[in-house]
Write a structure and sequence with these properties.
single chain, 145 residues, mainly alpha, 7 helices, binds zinc ion
Length: 145
């Protein structure tokens, strides 16, 4: 048994979950008048917090937010991104068509192990990007709720 009084955290823990407290804390709490007084204060505080009405919006939050999320406005940045992707894709196709007779021999000079390394790196980057995107999505959804 320890002689010192319980800390504020220990008393709060005891008030919230008596059975989860360590046996020596329970023994001290049952004998010490000072700690019992603090416990009573915390118990009243926690009870007052518990009986308080949970704050709610007096308007329909999801009803207001969802239409804005569903149809995004036209953004010039999005257009720029799509245009750049289109430009890159079309120039790649044009280049592939222009150099089509060399394409068949493009990987013959490269070691197979090197090709696997490139593919593995690309796959790893895609997996990490997808995981990051999913984590960000989950965070935003939980922030909404
Ligand atoms: Zn005490």
């Amino acid at each position: 048994m320890i002689a010192a009084h319980l800390s504020e955290e220990e008393i709060q823990q005891y008030a919230l979950d008596k059975k989860g407290s360590a046996p020596h804390l329970i023994a001290h709490m049952e004998t010490c008048v000072d700690c019992q007084a603090k416990l009573q204060t915390y118990t009243q505080l926690f009870e007052a917090i518990r009986v308080q009405e949970k704050p709610t919006f007096d308007f329909d939050l999801s009803g207001l937010l969802m239409p804005q999320l569903a149809k995004p406005k036209f953004a010039f940045n999005d257009f720029l991104v799509y245009f750049t992707v289109f430009l890159m894709g079309s120039s790649t196709i044009v280049a592939a068509f222009a150099f089509r007779k060399y394409l068949a021999n493009i990987f013959t000079g490269v070691m197979p192990m090197f090709i696997y390394l490139i593919l593995l790196t690309g796959l790893a980057v895609i997996v990490f990007q997808a995981a990051e995107l999913f984590r960000k999505y989950q965070k935003q959804i939980s922030a909404l709720n």
